[in-house]
Amino acid sequence: MSSSEIPAKLSTLVARFKRHSDPKLRYQQLLSYAKKLQPLPEEDKVPENKVKGCVSQVYISARIEDGKVVYSGDSDAQLVKGLVAFLIEGLNGLTPEEILKVSPDFIAETGLNASLTPSRANGFYNTFQMMKQKALNFQVATTTEQN
Fold first, then answer.
1. Can you count the helices (H) and strands (E) in the chain?
2. Does residue 145 carry a pLDDT above 80?
3. Looking at 6, 14, 54, 107, which residue is catalytic?
4. From the CB of residue 142, how many other CB atoms can be counted at a distance below 10 Å?
5. pTM for the complete prediction?
6. 27 is known as an active-site residue
7. Which of 110, 115, 135, 143 could form a disulfide with 99 if both were Cys (CB 3.0 to 4.6 A apart)?
8. What residues contact residue 119 under an 8 Å CB cut-off, 6+ apart?
């Protein structure tokens, strides 16, 4: 996977959003993702899982299963919850290395930036960066264990 490529699942999601030029349709799509997101257990709503720089309350937790990262998340705002669900669906099941190679350029490709307020777009980016940080933590822990 080169730096300009994005994982297949994420690429499919980006393509779905690119098909809609109408911001209302993009919002509807995000809201449908929000409805599908599994609830985050209360014990995962801790400060180290809280995304900083978001107007809404956003939490992302991660665990590693068979070398792949599995994310969970939640938000108190439905639209943001949809953004969280979008990222989780696009990144779940990848290795930490694959996640770390993903550039945030895909966010602009979705066309969502035009539909989101600057604070929501910034929160979307911050959520993605937190997911990458959690992947990096797994990668570092694995490297440390091997040495």
1. 7, 2
2. no
3. 54
4. 14
5. 0.91
6. no
7. 135
8. 54, 55
